[in-house]
Amino acid sequence: MRPAFFVLCTQWKQAMNANITRHNLFGSSKAKADAKAEKNGHTAKGIVKAEAEARDKKTARLREARLKMAMEVAATDTPDAPTKRKTTRRKQGGRDPIL
User: Which domain holds residue 50?
Assistant: First the structure.
């Protein structure tokens, strides 16, 4: 039976014999940044979607209220004879005086 130290040394030697480059030596931080950006994007899209739903709901409610008010006004409103507009005569002349 081999001692645990010997097993660890052989595994370490095998790991050291692998091709080590600057790309595979350390973990990729890009994956963490991408995950965080994706999480933030997902959260932002959820907020925008919730705001859009609330806005659409409010628009529908206001549209119904406006139509209801228009129906009430139309039901109580009686058509009167059209009134004649008063016209005013414009001043004849040139420029306005300088103050």
Answer: 40-76
Tokens, residue 20: 């080590």
Q: Is residue 64 part of a domain?
A: yes
User: Does the model's pTM come out above 0.85?
Assistant: no
What's the Cα-to-Cα distance from 63 to each of 4, 49, 59, 70, rounded to whole Å? 78, 21, 6, 11
CA atoms within 13 A on the CB side of 30: 3
59 located within any domain: yes
Query: Residue 22, exposed/middle/buried by CB under 10 A (0-12, 13-18, 19+)?
Result: exposed
Over the stretch 29-88, which tens digit does the pLDDT of each residue have? 667 888 889 999 999 999 999 999 999 999 999 999 999 999 998 888 766 667 777 777
Rg (CA), the chain: 40
